[in-house]
Amino acid sequence: MTEKDLEFAKPPISVETIVSTFKKYDLRYIVIFADNMFYVAQQDLQPYHPMYVDDSYPEDIELIFDLMTVERIRKIEYINGVLKRRTS
Predict the structure, then answer these.
(1) What does the DSSP assignment read for the chain?
(2) Which domain of life is it from (predicted)?
(3) 73 within 8 A of 27, measured Cβ to Cβ
(4) How far apart are CA 11 and CA 9, in angstroms?
(5) What are the angstrom distances between the C-alpha of 49 and each of 26, 27, 56, 76, 82?
(6) pLDDT in tens, the chain (88 residues)
(7) CB atoms < 10 A from the CB of 62, how many?
(8) pTM of the model
């Protein structure tokens, strides 16, 4: 994944921001599977979700959700220091 993949992204999102968010929460991937529905997995493949039922995800993860929707990215994955994306 490169900065070219973020053509329509709004600042402050950048590849560096995405990588730091994945590292911060120990995430492996984020997948969009329906209109505005996401699955977030940690490096151990366990789901990452808000602490309480009615809570939302942290703001930096929500920014990635917005990016994925606008750029039509189906999956963002971070493995062994490499950030990859898959489009629909």
Answers:
(1) --GGGGTTPPTT--HHHHHHHHHHTTEEEEEEEETTEEEEEETTS-B---SSTTPPPPHHHHHHHHHHHHHTEEEEEEETTEEEEEE-
(2) Archaea
(3) no
(4) 6
(5) 12, 11, 8, 16, 23
(6) 777 777 777 777 889 999 999 999 999 999 998 878 899 999 999 999 887 778 889 999 999 999 898 888 999 999 999 999 988 6
(7) 12
(8) 0.86
